[in-house]
Amino acid sequence: MDCASHRYPDGSMGIHDMCFYIKPAEIVAICGANGSGKSTLLEHLNGLLLPTSGHVYVMGRPFREKKDTIWRQVGLVFQRPEDQLFAPTVLDDVMFGPINLGMSKEEAREVAISALEHVGVSDLVDKMPNYLSGGQKRLVAIAGVLAMRPKIICMDEPTSDLDEVHSRRIVDIIEEMRRFHGISVVISTHDLNLASRIADRVCIVREGSIIADGQPRDVFYDRELIEYAGLSLPAVVELYYAYCERMGLRPDRRPLTVEELLDALTARTCPSFI
Ligand SMILES: Nc1ncnc2c1ncn2[C@@H]1O[C@H](COP(=O)(O)OP(=O)(O)OP(=O)(O)O)[C@@H](O)[C@H]1O
């Protein structure tokens, strides 16, 4: 995405001069407060929206018109799975994308069942999407995108309405997609705990622009930046800062996981016996 801007018909600015890229098999988290432009960015990556100015390229090819077929390479899991699920049964729903891509009914059925198995909900094939729980809808929506075998998957707030168990399942699925299928994943979120757990790279957005792009360990230890973006520090970073402040220590270790936090704290409090 090269200097792309999008103005909605009512004059609202969705994104402004935004430059964004993702590499093969990379996981990038787009982090920003409500209304900062995360969904607008994601909807440009699969051609649901076209930029008012600037360009979007997928696999090096420019996206010019809505009828371009580059969307086949980029799947989008919507923020509200209800916006994605519409067929009478879960299986029909997940088969819809593959059939649209030109697969036969048998082929589509096969890839749909395999995608449902992949996300762990193959027991739901005959259920009506409407009657599923929020977490189940989310998993079925992911299966629907996976069944289309895209090169890039964009997930808009993938864990926003999920409990800890379902959130962990989504994190595992994202990691598996990258590791076993080489898929690149873009997630949008305002949950920096999620982003710090999963992302190789993070982009911080504010008022439609990317204001920082870097490694989670660098970006999430910039307290001023995170506050400016209207976000809260990841819990591990917050705890580490609080601990260092109380102990009068310089916060020079930058832990991101609980394991790293424990290492950093015990290194400080338990002097070596050697
Ligand atoms: N269809 C639309 N028509 C007009 N303005 C819109 C439309 N969709 C989004 N916007 C505006 O564009 C800006 C960016 O919205 P967007 O939905 O991309 O933000 P977001 O970061 O995804 O927010 P959230 O976290 O609340 O979902 C906001 O000011 C919003 O009001």
Automatic annotation (TrEMBL):
> What is the native source organism of this protein?
Methanocella arvoryzae (strain DSM 22066 / NBRC 105507 / MRE50)
User: What is the name listed in the Swiss-Prot or TrEMBL entry for this protein?
Assistant: ABC-type transport system, ATPase component
Q: Which residues cross the membrane?
A: none
Q: Which Pfam families match?
A: ABC_tran
UniProt keyword annotations, A-Z: ATP-binding, Cell membrane, Membrane, Nucleotide-binding, Translocase, Transport
Q: Which GO terms describe its molecular function?
A: ATP binding; ATP hydrolysis activity; ATPase-coupled transmembrane transporter activity
Membrane topology, record value: Peripheral membrane protein
The record's listing under PANTHER family reads: ENERGY-COUPLING FACTOR TRANSPORTER ATP-BINDING PROTEIN ECFA1 (PTHR43553:SF24), HEAVY METAL TRANSPORTER (PTHR43553)
Presence of keyword Glycoprotein: no
Q: Report which superkingdom the organism of origin falls in.
A: Archaea
Q: Which InterPro entries match?
A: AAA+_ATPase (IPR003593), ABC_transporter-like_ATP-bd (IPR003439), ABC_transporter-like_CS (IPR017871), ABC_transpr_CbiO/EcfA_su (IPR015856), ECF_ABC_transporter_ATP-bd (IPR050095), P-loop_NTPase (IPR027417)
Domain ABC transporter as annotated: residue spans: 1-232
Keyword ATP-binding recorded: yes
Q: Which family does it belong to?
A: Belongs to the ABC transporter superfamily.
Task: Spell out the subcellular localization from the entry.
Answer: Cell membrane
What are the GO cellular component annotations? ATP-binding cassette (ABC) transporter complex
What the protein does comes down to:
Probably part of an ABC transporter complex. Responsible for energy coupling to the transport system.
Name the major location: membrane
